[in-house]
Amino acid sequence: MGKKSKKNKEKPAAASPEHKELSKGEKKEVLDTVNQLLEVCSNPVNAAGPKELEEYMKIKALVEKVINLQSGLYTPAVDREKNFPGFIEWLHSNGVETSVVDIKNFPGCGYGLQATKDLKNFPGCGYGLQATKDLKEADPFLTIPRKVMMTTQTARDSVLGPLIGQDKMLQAMPSILLALHLLCEKKIPESFWKPYIDVLPDSYCTPLYFTEDEIKLLKGSPVQSDCYNQLKNIARQYAYFYRLFQNLPTTSKLPIKDCFTFEDYRWAVSTVMTRQNQIPTPDGSKITFGLIPMWDMCNHCNGTITTDYNMESDCSDCFALKEFKQGEQISIFYGARSNAELLVHNGFVYPENDMDRTAIKLGISKSDSLIDKKTKLLTALGLAPSRMFFIYSGKSL
């Protein structure tokens, strides 16, 4: 939602349409590299430290090799701002009222990894929603019907349907399912969601885009290991699906079968990671995930959750968390996330974060000669022998 994008210096320029096919030799080299990637990502590393960094650099080198080999297959970037009018028209044609809000670029209100060096030079939070009239606290400002959302259900009804029925990973991990759904729709010119996809950022500030120098800025922080693991997990997923698309007959009709690049996959994963939200299934029996157009352009601030799902109207309703004057940016509260969680999952940090915290694990030492008796006593009192405690830097207790 909002500021999660940045110019990706590593991304090669998009190739012209006539250079969209890899040679047999290039395809073989990509497959060989993907096989190496899967092998490295499948090896467990038991502790943080030099070995973890060594593994990360090995994975990153293989990922960069895949990116370079696939440089002629990338989807050309689009001009988001030029596509905003078509996006708004699409929303209106599907019953979304936008008279209370407008899309605007807001510089200087958000911070990414660069903030650890110089807050003044960071470009800001990018596009967000601006109030076109005064709003009081709890005033409704945006209602989004289910029919314009990309959800796990629309994924099952799409060209991905047959594969979902066969693949346990897609059945168990809705975020991955949404990412592949988004990628498939991006490759379909007549997709219902094309106006929405055309206004999404072309890259992000998530750890999947971090350079080696940016990763080094996190030395000494537990977040560094989280960033290592994120790249490792996504690289493993990519290698798994790349091989699956090459070998499984069910994937023959997928629009991404012959152009499934790591660059596109990390874009789709980052889009879902930074913009997905929980919504109920149509029958209300379960909670699933979805992408909510327009609402996902709201940026973050301190407050409380003010978005709810109305099962009667089958819409997501968003209410102002405080008073907003005409011309001000309308922000929402993403949830009780620390700056570490915001950086890893959203690609930014929030200096005024009331929910910022650090975790400390306290418990009985395994070398304690009385560990059994102490554990028994704590259990009788309803307490865990070991647990995490959080120290907050803001107002929260």
Question: How would you explain this protein's 3D organization?
Answer:
InterPro entries: Rubisco_LSMT_subst-bd_sf, SET_dom, SET_dom_sf, SETD3, SETD3_SET, SETD3_SETD6_MTase. This is protein-histidine N-methyltransferase. Its EC number is 2.1.1.85. GO terms for molecular function: protein-L-histidine N-tele-methyltransferase activity; protein-lysine N-methyltransferase activity. With 397 residues, the protein is an alpha+beta fold. The protein has 13 helices and 12 strands. It has a 4-stranded mixed β-sheet, with no helix packed on it. It has a 3-stranded antiparallel β-sheet with strand order 3-9-8, with no helix packed on it. It is globular, with a radius of gyration of 23 Å. About 7% of the residues have low confidence.
Helix content: 25-40%
* Number of DSSP strand runs: 12
Radius of gyration: 23 Å
Strand content: 15-25%
Strand line-up across the major sheet? 1-2-10-7
Give the ordered list of helices and strands.
HHHEEEEHHHHHHHHEEEEEEHEHE
- Overall, the morphology is globular
Mean pLDDT score, rounded?
A: 87
Give me the number of helical elements. Answer: 13
Report the sheet with the most strands, covering strand number, pairing sense and barrel closure: 4 strands, mixed
Distance between the termini: 27 Å
Give me the secondary-structure category.
alpha+beta
Uncertain segments: 7-19, 110-124
